[in-house]
């Protein structure tokens, strides 16, 4: 419904109520409706799921249409990210938010900072989803509020053409609300626990949930050692649980991202159940590191499996975990991915130890032999040393081409002395085009960075503290922060406005008319930034 139609509808509704509603202004109510387009988290989940599905189809047609996101640990950070995207690029198209379990654990737990091991409160995850969307909706309300003020000013000037232009802009307004891919870790328990948490996350607004095949109570960060995976059927139960949650809540096109940590996981907690030779359980067990034994050598307390008439003893650690044969990680990854897609997952996530397009693409090619439209969500992780990795990739490529690399030490390529070299320049160019190249060559539909704003917060705070508490004093803040905000057009320089003071003033005027005590008067110091 258009701005004018909304106002007309409310005018009719108000008039039916007679004098008791006579103080209600239809246009003010229409503005509030437009500033609150999404009434519930489920409205958001349904809206954003449709966006993701359209983006997935667009990528299938053209890999250049890949999508991106940054992980955000607070609603304000997510809000500022989307405001920045709209400012610099004019549209939020193909740009999402990522909710990182790592950052929830490190920054949002009541226990204090925790490692990424599913020890934080599970309710903190849907709480952050709700917080992110609260801030994104407030960004809409703030921006639309400015447009309403401009509309009133155009009307006061009698500029009908400008008023019509603004009304058209209001009718075609692009929201800051975008899809969130939310990390549900390993489900925080059994399949029922996964289902219950998934419902809370979807009700908060998540249209895409990412779940991994680690053991829930042994979960580790994807870039830490000691990862333990579960048999396929255990993982598939959780994928089905999430799908049931989406369907129950009416988000019929919700997106499930199945993550495999098998590439770096050398352990399993259990031997899979086998019904017949060659089934999924048997395939999982085939990767176990076993010793063939004679029945006469069986000892008390040992565990055995049989295969092809042979008695095998899986290698079991004192932790009661079983280990896989070395070198099987890639094969296990491929089987995990195929199995997940064949059982209800929509997208894949392969956690790798380095950002290497050839390695990722090789696995995707194998997966696509079975599932042709398989595509990935990929973690452009801060856990990778991108500089060193790509300099070594260039070094290896040059060496293979027969080029002279005698001026470089492969293990010391991070050293600053190489920063201005030809090798470093080529490595940086490969980093710059990594997302585009990986989307085209390795099936990556969505690129994300899990915890970038964790690092940017630390870096910017360090720079400010160094200056402010040093010789620069107040100039450290003014020169390093405020002056840059003004010159670069950072809306947050008017922090009262960003926090909602103008929205509140508009509401006060609607509620109290001339009696309203508004904050945004002539003496508001925020007016000092009017020229900024």
Automatic annotation (TrEMBL):
Keywords: Lyase, Magnesium, Metal-binding
Active site: 221
A Pfam family per the record: ICL
Family matches, as InterPro entries: ICL/PEPM, Isocitrate_lyase, Pyrv/PenolPyrv_kinase-like_dom, Pyrv_kinase-like_dom_sf
Keyword Lyase in annotation: yes
Binding site for substrate: 100-102, 222-223, 259, 379-383, 450
Catalytic activity: D-threo-isocitrate = glyoxylate + succinate
Cofactors required: Mg(2+)
GO biological process per UniProt: carboxylic acid metabolic process
Cofactor binding notes: Can also use Mn(2+) ion.
UniProt-recorded Gene Ontology molecular function terms: isocitrate lyase activity; metal ion binding
UniProt: Mg(2+) binding residues: 183
Alphabetical list of NCBIfam families matching this protein: PRK06498.1 (NF005074)
Descriptive protein name: Isocitrate lyase
